Amino acid sequence: MALPFLPGNSFKSTLGKTKHHKSHHFDYSNDVAMLVGQSKPGIGGEPIRGQVIKPRMSSFPRGESQLPNWVAYDQKVLCFDAFFHEEVIEKREEQFRVRECKIYFYLEDDSIQVIEPRAKNSGIPQGTLIRRHRINKPNSDQFYTVEDFNIDNEINLYSKIFKITNCDNFTYNFLRKLGIKISQPADIPVDPYGEYRKAMDGSMQPLRPYEKHDTLKQFLDHDRHVLRFYCYWDDSDSMFGDPREMVLHYFLADDTMEMREVIPPNSGRDNVAVFLRRGKMPKDVESVQQPGVKTDRTVLNVFGPMGHGGRYILDSLKTGAIHTEFYKDSDLTIGTVINVWGRKFIICDCDEFTKEYYKSKYGIEQFTPITYKQNAGYKLDRQYPPYNGFGSEEDSLCSCMGLLPKPPKRDFIKFMEKDRHGLESNVLRFLAKLNTTKPIDMERRFIISYFLCDDTILVFEPPVRNSGIIGGKFLERGRIKKPGQPLYSTKLSDYFSAQDLYVGSSVDFSGHKFILVDADEYAFRYMEEHPAEFPLANINNIVQKIKNKIGNSMEDVRAFFARNDPHGAGAVNYEQFHSLMQQIDGNLTEQEIMTIARYYSDRSGDNSVDAAKLMVIAQEQLRKRNYEDFAKLLDALQYEDKEKSGQVHAEVIRSVFHAHHVPLPDDMLRAVLTIAPGDGSSNIVYSEFIKLINWKDNPAAPIQYTATQDEGWSGTQPKNQINSVNYMAILKDIFGNID
Fold first, then answer.
1. Could you tell me if 43 and 51 are in contact, meaning their C-beta atoms sit under 8 angstroms apart?
2. Rounded mean pLDDT of 559-579?
3. Residue 353: alpha-carbon gap to chain centroid
4. 270 vs 272: CA distance, rounded Å
């Protein structure tokens, strides 16, 4: 029947499709087309009577999982040990070879791979003999399956007969689960030629036996690991000799050593880089031979002229070899004397890495150093000329330390941390009086200001009307020396510090003796917040001191407080409390008594901030920075007011101010928010608040404002004075819970 010609299809492709379609119904036997083949079922897919269809793949028992083989048996391989005989033609030494190999059967697709382990100098290609793929059985269209593999079976793979001798544990267990009876492992026959090669290799001796020392592992393990020892060489017996200090470096990578000399300044010696170059150090210097005596090889006899057909015999046993012992890391310990080319060096100390190395490797725990340096008493201190009175002492001292005088360095970090910023002045002010018996001077009061940024002191006398004394600056701001020091000395003078100023102390400022009788609220609060710097303001130390003095006399103390508290209010006035503290411990200073009284006090008065003055300060701060974007601040706050109530929280205002970079310190902003109009619950009327700080449209009335306010303060204000002290809280902290 003629096949129709279709456009775009060739006759060859059409014929191929027809043949492919035909292969589903016909089979070939002896090149004769048969309607039904041996592997083709009958009508309906049922096998013909007497027909047995052989499986083309391995059949495994199915469990609960119905996964396909390529998923269930992925990366699961059966491994068998096998060998095969290979005939050797036209060779006298051998007639056949026994070649061992590994047979891998992959369970996922019944593929087989044969690999032969590589042998040294075999002379034949080894490795993968058969690549992984499915292999047909000889003279059959069936493939090898798992049922064909067992110990003591022979498998024909491409005309090579492989005898299986053993298998691994996984293969053994897997075949047992399939129900296959496994035979006993067999031995692989001995290869005659392999045994002959081994015997021949054992009897051979090289003509030139070079010794190979493998130092690669030592190099990789200890590269850049260096032991450091401090040595001492006493060369004072030789002419112009003196004791010399050395540093010994031992390189663990190759067991070599080098020595470097520590040359002190002005010793008269040239500063050479290395005293001894890096190399191995022999223990016995006398055993060191001349060049050419010690060689790697020794010639026993020579036949004929050298280099012109002559022969020679080498000493392979090294009967005349000279062995030299070199220093190892085990020979270097503290106190050991080593011989460095005739010079005796004493190992006196080592560094921390060396100590850890000897602890971990040799278990040495004691590393007591040996004193080898010269006595420090021989060192002469540099003498500076005394202060001549011109300039400051530090400036005069710097001019003596070098040919080019340099100005003294100031503590810039301390200056930046303790300088005035915001409402933090970092100035401690004390009220003082003169320690004198003159009636005119006894009534005079002074304000002593201590500046923490540069440790300077300013003494100011507030003017008093009709006193006959003109007030003003009493001592100019500057550092003040403590009394009792020489005026012109080679050492720097000792100056008054912040710890020397406290309530009750007596100070001598340039011949003027003062007694500190009071301090302002900022000074008290600063000293109480820094108890480590001011121990007299440490409440814990003061309470412990009082507790040690009272002891077990709690009833006497309670009786004293009860006599002075007839109403049972649990508090006494400050004068009574002061007299009691003096009776308990007469060594308590006024500062300590005031500290404990302030801690347990009940103060009267209002501690609110002056609103008008604070607004003037805030506007002045914004005016100096030329900040005028108040409209943007108002728009941002209106955006934050989601409920359109006209009020926002104080923290919202702080975040908006920080986002717009308003040049107002955070502590000052907090203080201004406390006096801003609102409902009293941290909600601020932001439109009125913006008007208060708007210096351009609503400028505040100017007031006189000074930096230190020395003129305005003349003692503790009434609102900060201590009226009464809660003695019940003191007794509870000292004696615990009381009834």
1. no
2. 77
3. 19
4. 6
